[in-house]
Fold this protein.
Amino acid sequence: MFADSIPPTHIDNFAGKPRVIIISDMGNEPDDQMSFVRFLLYSNEFDIEAMIATTSTWQKTATHPETMRMLIDAYGQVRNNLLLHAQGWPTADELDAKVFAGQTAYGLAGTGPNKMSPGAEAILRAAERDDPRPVWICIWGGASTLAQALLRARVTHRPADLDKLIEKLRVYSISDQDDAGPWIRREFPDLFYIVQPTTPTGAEYYYATWTGISGDAYYRNGAGADFTTVTNEWLDANIRSKGPLGKMYPRFLFTMEGDTPSFLGLIDNGLNAYRRPDWGGWGGRYIYRQPYGETHAIWTQGGDMFSRVTSQDAVIGIDSKEHISDQATVWRWREAFQNDFAARMDWTVADFEHANHNPIVDVNGQSGTAPIFLEAQVGKSVTLDATRTRDPDGPQQLHFHWFHYGEAGSTGANLASINLAGAETPKAVVTPTAVCRSNWLQPAPKCTGDGVVHIILAVTDDGSPKLTSYRRIILTVHPSTP
């Protein structure tokens, strides 16, 4: 089982860019194309292994790799301009060589001993490569191409080598869009898998975390969220009007970019959500539990209402009221990730001087984006100093906001309580008050050992659009000394 290979308390501490594979039912409706445009605008953040066109319940008999190549061609027209703003952008030819067709029939019926596809071969090549970094497989459609790769691996690899291959994979699936996903989880229980298990009909999408990216109006599940930046009107002004790549961003049919949360948390913005799904970030937050109908625990939604440790976040909405939902784990970051998207689209048409760029955060003398781990003790204050944070665009005013992400990091840990002073200043003071926060149900279970606290610093500039960078500080809180 998963817990015997990579325990849920494991943190991915690899160095370098995340390795990424996209599996998309491109062509069934506009949202995959929309997500792909955004993905290309962040292609300097990833080591892209493959982009695979496949089927789903919405497109059972066709794949459209040619659409991916069309979008990559538009990206190629703006790459030189992107290089004015950041390094690491792959060439269009390099990306084009990584586009593959996956399984061409629906679900498990399209897999078998003699049904290897170029996409399945690409998955195996990436998993077998001698690279210590995990491979993130972002599934925007059906999972049949991954199923085919695993079927072949099971036949061609010795058990120990198969275990090593499985240990490398990290799957984030946008619900279950064919019958292959549930089969994979049954047959390969050690596989790291993020999903809210569903029937492939779409009837349960309403409940899914990923709908928090823009599902407010269509799914009517975004109470408290600000819908402004996910309307077609905002997208017309900030995305579609900006150059050759912006023109390739279609108007949405149901919602904007339902597949994007699968890679949104992999972006190097300082939140480091890809280290472990319960940390939370732009792609949402998940917990490790066994959903009904699954044979083992996975990273998913739900949780224990007695302890209040669930996959939901409590967030103050645009109406100044607290809202608690799975979707809030995504929409709480919406203004920031949409402004970030708009700024990158500006990069495709403007030079450095006439575009905005993210602040560079420094906390306690540590610059960069990596999480900062600190030791703390109940009753003793810890100072967090971000006064050396700077903006690459010169003397812009920076706005600082420190907050306790109270739901983050609960797996295998006590969630501690703190007091936080100076939350809107460059320098904050954190004082742990208890290793375990108060439990609403009494008598509470006995609290033993240490606690954990995740503090997030969000630094926002006053450019156009306003851009936010983050830093995650993780405190291990020890009991007070007698």
Q: What stands out?
A: The first strand starts at residue 19 and ends at 24.
